[in-house]
Design goal:
Number of helices: 10
Strand content: 15-25%
Number of strands: 17
Structural class: alpha/beta
CATH superfamily of the largest domain: Dihydrodipicolinate Reductase, domain 2
Largest sheet: 9 strands, mixed
Distance between the termini: 35 Å
CATH class of the largest domain: Alpha Beta
């Protein structure tokens, strides 16, 4: 069976998630399209890289991503670093002939994302953006119902992503609050997942009308090289740094196929942990999903008998998308790790079989165009229509 050597840049939270997927993918999808070999991990210091490599099962470690990219033994470059480093690494990897998987959002904005798309296209390598939530079986089941016409023509999409990890003003100044590193705030960090859902399930977004707010203008400067997110609180008298990205946004949207909808995301919603949802209304029914209840899809069909009409729960399992490779009992429990395992399988399959995979850098670029339009609309206070882009990136 073919083996593909993986070089991963970044050994933090997302590095753990990706490493778990590399280890477990052949156990779930057997025979696997290829065996991921955790070859080399790169991080910012020798101590951190050595520790992460040991913890995450990598054979080697390094502090120089350029050496990794140019290593002829490496087949796949996995980018799990802050957003401002994605473009340089991905472009260099593509020029070196490596297949590239990159965490979301793809770039700091559409212009930068386009340079990444151009690089992987010119090199002819496989490329993927890690919007893994769409690989939740219940989300794939919603896609199946829509394609089968079960809810008819789609009229409306409503999507949310609500979290509370940054609602405390004493949570530290993560790089996610700094525009030069993150590009945007709640929009790029979590809102783009909802944009991906909307495009995946309904169709292309053409127009947006948005509001954006920064509720906490400064936060305590964190110490050390490890990003602490909202897990550690600082004292009130700790030195503060400026927050220059959005804490929250909401936007109305129009789709190319005539549907309308809304997207809302915030990291300041007390009581919401990972409240990623969508509700889709069609002429013949409705679908509702909440990621905090990952095994469930709520459905209502117009032709249900009148004495049984209303939302009912479908539990994902062996008979639903990806089910044969996962667990043998419906509702046994799908976790974050399983979505990454499926993502890894689909990416490696595309490499071995020389097929396209989605979401790829084309999708990542289009999502960045939409995100830029949302920020522009919030600044201008009016509808913004996305400029027409080549059909190859739709």
């Amino acid at each position: 069976m073919k083996k593909l050597n993986v070089g991963m840049i970044g050994g933090g939270f997302m590095g753990k998630a990706h490493s778990l997927a590399y280890a477990a993918m052949p156990m779930f999808f057997w025979p696997a399209p290829a065996i991921p070999h955790r070859h080399t991990l790169v991080d910012i210091s020798e101590e951190i890289a050595k520790d992460a490599a040991a913890k995450l099962g990598f054979e080697n470690y390094s502090t120089d991503w350029r050496d990794l990219v140019n290593n002829p033994e490496i087949d796949v470059i996995d980018i799990v670093t802050p957003n401002n480093t994605h473009a340089e690494i991905a472009i260099a990897a593509a020029k070196a002939g490596k297949h590239v998987i990159c965490e979301k959002p793809l770039a700091l904005g559409a212009e930068e994302a386009k340079t990444m798309l151009d690089a992987v296209t010119a090199a002819g390598v496989k490329h993927m953006v890690a919007f893994n939530y769409r690989r939740t079986p219940a989300v794939a089941l919603a896609k199946q119902y829509i394609e089968e016409g079960r809810i008819g023509k789609i009229l409306n999409f409503r999507g949310t992503y609500l979290q509370d990890w940054s609602a405390d003003p004493n949570s530290p100044l993560s790089w996610r609050f700094q525009k030069k590193v993150a590009g945007s705030g709640a929009l790029g960090d979590i809102g783009t997942h909802v944009v991906d859902f909307a495009r995946y399930l309904v169709g292309e977004i053409t127009d947006v009308n948005a509001l954006a707010k920064t509720w906490i203008p400064e936060r305590p400067i964190q110490t050390g090289g490890v990003d602490k997110l909202g897990t550690v609180k600082s004292n009130d008298d700790a030195p503060k740094g400026v927050v220059d990205v959005d804490d929250e946004f909401m936007t109305m949207i129009k789709f190319e196929n005539g549907a309308v909808g809304s997207i809302e995301a915030t990291r300041n919603a007390w009581g919401r942990n990972n409240f990623l949802t969508f509700e889709i209304h069609g002429e013949k029914g409705s679908i509702y999903f909440n990621y905090e209840r990952r095994d469930e899809l709520q459905v209502c069909f117009a032709d249900d008998p009148s004495d049984a009409k209303g939302f009912r729960t479908v539990y994902t399992g062996p008979s639903t998308p990806y089910g044969e490779a996962l667990w043998p009992i419906p509702a046994l429990g799908i976790g974050y790790g399983e979505t990454k395992i499926i993502e890894t399988h689909d990416f490696f399959k595309s490499i071995v079989e020389d097929t396209d995979v989605s979401p790829n850098f084309k999708d990542g670029y289009r999502i960045e165009l939409i995100a830029d339009a949302i920020l522009e609309s919030a600044e201008r206070g009016e509808w913004v229509s996305l400029e027409k882009v080549p059909s190859a990136v739709k």
